[in-house]
Amino acid sequence: MVFFKAQKYQRLAELEARVQKALEEAGGDGLNWAEDELASAAGMAGFDLETARLLDAETLATVLRAGGEGAEGRVWLAAETLYLDGLVARAQGRRADARDRWAKACSLYERLDPEASFPEAEATPGERLRAVREEAGG
Fold first, then answer.
1. How far is CA 91 from CA 30, 46, 56, 105, 134, in A?
2. Of 63, 71, 91, 117, which residue has the fewest beta carbons closer than 10 angstroms?
3. Among 28, 137, 136, which residue's Cα sits nearest to residue 91?
């Protein structure tokens, strides 16, 4: 069970690296694979990406925390997934979708201890919150 939990974090970290590399190399061209990968990573983390996109931030947070054990991890993974989804949306010219994803990600990051650390994460929730706000332009 512990291995499976670590896999979720590792998979998302690897996906983040791939998205960032694609953005740096081609400005987002060729990110068609990313949506399926993000949906798969979300499923592995215990939530549906399409549902996360549709729910308001408050409801999404409630759903993610309903599972009990590991709720903070699910909130982190959902926030990270929505952050990456926003990067992909922006690269594909869907700025309104990007802003929506980032607003939800920020709402989720705000619900976590800003100094918490998660496996494979290069940033704390507080650091990521600042980065996403900067990415979104404020």
1. 10, 26, 23, 17, 16
2. 117
3. 28
DSSP letters along 122-134, please? Answer: SS-HHHHHHHHHH
Whole-angstrom Cα distance, residue 136 to residue 18?
Answer: 20
Q: What predicted TM-score, i.e. pTM, was given to this entire model?
A: 0.89
CA 6, 67, 104, 52 torsion-angle sign: positive
Structural contact between residues 64 and 75, judged by C-beta atoms closer than 8 angstroms: yes
Instruction: Write down how long the chain is.
Output: 138
Residue 99 identity (one-letter amino acid): R
Structural domain spans, the chain: 2-136
Q: Which one-letter amino acid corresponds to residue 71?
A: A
Model confidence at 4, pLDDT cuts 50, 70, 90, reads very low
* Phi, psi (deg, nearest 5) at residue 72: -60, -40
